[in-house]
Fold each of these.
Amino acid sequence: MPELPEVETIARALAPRLLGRRISEIRILSGRVASGNAARIAACLRGRVITALRRRGKYLIVELDGAMLTIHLGMTGSLLWNGTPGPHTRAEFVLDGDRLL
């Protein structure tokens, strides 16, 4: 499980790449990713701008204009910037400029 220092490192590394970017699409690839209706959550976040990225305990908090997204990396989770989706990819975030998280 990613420990607190690793989560902080992820937040600091991604912040410069994510801040100010608009979420143009979210692809939920696994039903285990979201609590609730995944399609509704994706629709709610689409078009929002990322305003802050911070850590609270082992959670990543993505602050958006008018919403918030909480991410827990579970036992072996990671976030990849422009990574090639692998067999264990659970969700993809397409940001303006076709940047993929």
Amino acid sequence: MKNINRYKTYFLVFLFGVTLVRLIFIGFLDLSPDEAYYWDWSRNLGLSYYDHPPMVAYFISLFTLLGRNSEFFTRLSCVVLIFLMTIIAYRLGKDIFGDERAGLLSAFLVNIVPGHAIGAVIVTPDTPQGFFWVLGLYFVYKAISTSKEFWWYLVGVALGFGLLSKYTMLLFVPSIFLFLLLSKDNRKWLMRKEPYLALIIGLVVFSPVIIWNFKHDWISFNFQFTHGFSKKENPGMKYFLDYIGGQMGIVSPFVFIAWLYTMAKSLYLGLKRQNANLLLLFCASAPVFLFFAVISLRTKVEGNWPGMAYFSGLIAMTGLSLLSLSRGKKRKLHVAWLIIVFSSSLLLTTVAHVQAIYPLLPIPLKDDPTSALHGWREMGLEVNKVLHEMPKEIPTFILGHRHQVVGELAFYTESQRYPVYEVSWEGRFNQYNIWNDFSTRLGNNAVLVSEQSYGESSFVTAVFDRIEESRCLTIKRNGFPIRSIYIYKCYNFKGLKASS
């Protein structure tokens, strides 16, 4: 009992300690371009959006409503959701393996792998989807361990909210049905109504996104299908190798190797001994990884797409490792391997967080991904100065050339007073293309903001009577330039048709 209470204490100290660090961290850095884009969604709540379902916008809207429009409250939902995921990891590890240590190590490992740790401080659709994936997994575990039907209805709710977060939540369905097929003790559920009612509940909860797509000619579904499944010309093994490398980055190389071994062992022991818990952890993890591995043979797969699948695999990893240690075979080797796995992952995550605040790695800051978290507030202040220089008697709007930059302009300028628009003379279709209504801006002036020089662009000169470059702002980090921002004063907007 004393040891149990001790491990619970360790867990609580870790949980609240890491949460406190994150609460401090999330207010230090500018929003990344994608974060600002999602924040702009939260100002315009809808049933869904072009790029993703709406849950990320709902969470941002909730927490900024409780607080204010700041980096801290925009990201606060991530910290809260990872806090709850950590509790679930602890409960699953403890209950499945009957060991408080498994719960503690599961909670620790889930938090220190780079992908999960970054998702705890950077707001994206992946974090709410990951939370509802984990919550759904926990409800499935409760359903099979208690044989109580009502847990399946909660599975349906979690599925629906997960689908409202990101479309890849759909992979949760075949993962669970594969588990029911492989587990002899739980195959009975295939002949009962509850799993199918859970699926129906999930689709009902998801129905707002279906309605939105119906009203918009299925534009989001089509984008996701072509984005994720369209075959590139003769990709060979390039995208597959990129995929494997990306997964090593998401969870760290040693964790990835340990995860592969754990999945093989979980499947073997799960089938041989008909261990339902190991089969569940396997089916909620490995099939998702394999699905995207196959896709990577056809087209490029983003590293974060299978990220939600590692959660159950990490729990299996800690639980099976403790079982091996308890048997006393090659104990020193197992301990050494665990230390390498945990410490390497913690090191990568720590370096990533430090690099975001103060660059230590010897890479050009212009190419450093963490530089995307710097300089946008400075840009906003400069754009505000230009806005105040524009003629007061004629309305002025802000015009950006790339949706991520437009999101930053919306967040860091006086966008309540000066509306922000994106014009797609280049780049892919996005949510701003749906929102934009330039008909109300005819005759207005604009401040054009771009990361490229467009002063002589025939497109720009065609839609305004006159443009003049106001300034070129060089954003620096630690004294080194990371991006250039061109700001133009544009007069008498003539409409987009003028450029055709």
Amino acid sequence: MKGREFKDAMYDGLAKMLKAISNPNRLEIIEMLSQGEKSVE
């Protein structure tokens, strides 16, 4: 893979990942999970 193709693939993957977590509810869940274990009671 050449330099430009690599960058295009990298940016495409990054855009897909950021799109997947762009929902505010998903970001809140990620933040809560990063704080450690939680009870589900």
Amino acid sequence: MLVRARAIENQAFVVAADQVGDDGAGHESFGGSMIVDPWGEVCARAGDGEGFVAADLDTGRQDTIRGELPSLANRVPGAYRWPEEVTA
């Protein structure tokens, strides 16, 4: 669900690679890598376990979605500065 939210809020395709198995610290992962379009729709999803996922991406669709949902127009570029650029 979070991957889909990131795709929508950034209006971009998102490729989310997941891991499989025990990480040695007691955390188990089950796979499920996916590719999501800018509307949050899953283009391709790997099953549980090891696998590979691929999709043909229509970058024109990204432009269309950005035109239909212009949320990026509300961003404030000055709010995205690196800490060393901020003066005290």
